[in-house]
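The material for today's practical consists of a large collection of protein records. Read left to right, the backbone structure tokens trace the chain's path through space. An example says more than a description, so a record of this kind follows:
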Amino acid sequence: MGEVLDLFPEDEIPGKQQLPANPRNLCELIVGDARKILKGFPEGLFRCAVTSPPYWGLRDYGIQGQIGAEASVDDYIADLVKLFAEVRRVLAADGTLWLNMGDSYTSGGRTWRDDDAKNKGRAMSYRAPTPSGLKPKDLIGVPWKLAFALQSDGWYLRTDIVWNKPNCQPESVKDRPTRSHEFLFLFSKSERYYYDWEAIIEPALDRKQAAKNRRTVWNINTEPYPGSHFAVFPKALVRLCISAGSEPGDRVLDPFLGSGTTGVVSNELGRQCTGIELKPEYAELAWERLLKGQ
């Protein structure tokens, strides 16, 4: 349990970073494009995957060919379907995928976006064009487009979960409610799969009430991390997914590791973890978080 997961020799995966030996660390970090790296993994390696891909047309990571910067939302969905087909291949037969996805609105013909003082990551050198058939100011429906596409590709779509953010950022809009939620989808590779419902049971609020099965609305605050990029996965959200989808000692995959939350929580829960991150700066942040255990 105390050894660092090491699936491949260093020279087989360009950019692979192995963290220093540490009894609290069970993770490896690979810098590169998950679409290529996943093809080198053997089948059935991971018990579950927990991830949040870059959202379509919302951020510019400055990487050529980055997922999220496709010319059309259909191309974006197709890219993710191909990637998650590889994720399904490397999952165990009873494995699950916990997928977080946010939505967006059409750009209305704007071609770039300035940053703002509250969110430096908003600045973009491009804006995604309005998808065919939609109008300016339309909500695109990206999470459900992706969920249905993955379902058609062979995944079992088991449930949608509403991640409600009590501390969501304010919006300047006055012609619709402020969006304070994102979707989390639970997919399984097979009809029967591992799911520990007792690990994430909702505790009783008082002695008169009994504990109950976890509901599908999760009220979880966003969690900023010093020096992080704009979208940090909350540890509380990831902890529920890993607890329900795996057992101690299992291997967890995050093909979009970002700031490293999946790895940090895997360490806390005694799971081994492989994280893949395309952007070197984010991989460095994840490295630092894993070393600190934060």
About this structure: The first strand starts at residue 16 and ends at 17. The radius of gyration is 19 Å. Residues 73-90 form the longest helix (18 residues).
